[in-house]
Each structure stands twice: as structure tokens, then as C-alpha cells.
Amino acid sequence: MPDPILQEPLYTQPGHLLRRAQQISASIFHDEIGSQVTPMQYAVLCVLLDNPGVDQVSVAGLAAIDTSTAASVAMRLEEKGLLSRQVDPANRRQRILTLTGQGRDLLRSLNDAIARLHRRIFEKFSPEEETQFMTLLQKLVDVNNHQSRAPLTTARSRLAAEAAKNPVPDKV
Question: String of b and e for 39-71 (b: at least 16 CB within 10 Å)?
């Protein structure tokens, strides 16, 4: 009989289950991808594919990682030849990141492995269960983004923030 000190058993707590799900996902990622890149490096490369020439701080926000981690990930990816980092002439403390041809080739080559990873994660789910799970997981992430130590920023939210700072008068 479990000790009644816990109101909620460990194996039913959402935080524990989310940590286990991430642990399983990372394990499958490494099975499929090997040591080519880590899940975080993959995320940064994907962000750069969609946002060429973005600064390092923005990459951190778009990948939902802290800025110091983004800097170290970018340095490792640069060492691997997968991205280039250039000093931003407008702000010499900032780095502009660009995916290299080798980085693009790597992402292209990983498509089949990422598809296998996806299939393995959901192999025991029906298509409806997978859709429902992904919808609820996205909702969980979206409604709790503000509680993250490294919240996701999106191009849309950045544009909205810029628009709020510089409102355009209504046309009459």
C-alpha cells in the first residue's frame, strides 16, 4: 500500500509524465539520428531554415531556449560547419546566424529519420489519438508558455509587439 504522504502518486503527476515523455522522445531521437546533432541543435537548425540571417537572441526565443544555451549551441554548430556566425554590424555585441549549405544538406538528410521518430512515438496510437494528443500537447505548451524560463517567441508575436509600439493610424 502506498504511503499516504503523497496526495498524487508520482506516476500520475503531469510533470513526471512529461519528463518521461521527453526522455523517451530524446532516446528515440538519438536512436534515429545518432550523434550527428542533438535535439536542441536540430531545433536551432530548423529555426534558421525558417528564419535565415536572424540574430542569436532571436534564435533563442524562436527555439525556446535561454540565450546562453543558444550561444553555446551556435558555437558547436559553427564548429561542425552547419551554420555561420557573423558579428552584426548594427550591434557588435550580437551575432547573425545563417544556415550553411552543409546545414541545409544535413536537415534534408534527416527527414526520413525524423519521420521514423514520429512513427515510433505514435506507433501504438490510432490516427485520432495522435491528433488529439498533439492538439492537447500544443494547447498545454501554448497556455503555459509564459511560465517557461525560456518562453517561445514567434514571428507573429514579435510583429504584434512591434505593431503595438508603432501603431498605424486607421485609413479614413
Answer: ebbbbbbbbbeeeeebbbbbbbbbbbbeeeebb
Neighbours of 136 (CB within 10 A): 10
Burial bucket for residue 77 (CB in 10 Å: 0-12, 13-18, 19+): buried
Q: For the segment 37-62, what is each residue's pLDDT rounded down to a tens digit?
A: 999 999 999 999 999 999 999 999 99
Q: What pLDDT digit, counting tens, does each position of 16-36 carry? A: 999 999 999 999 999 999 999
Q: Write the Ramachandran bin of 22: left for phi over 0, alpha for psi from -120 to 50, otherwise beta.
A: alpha
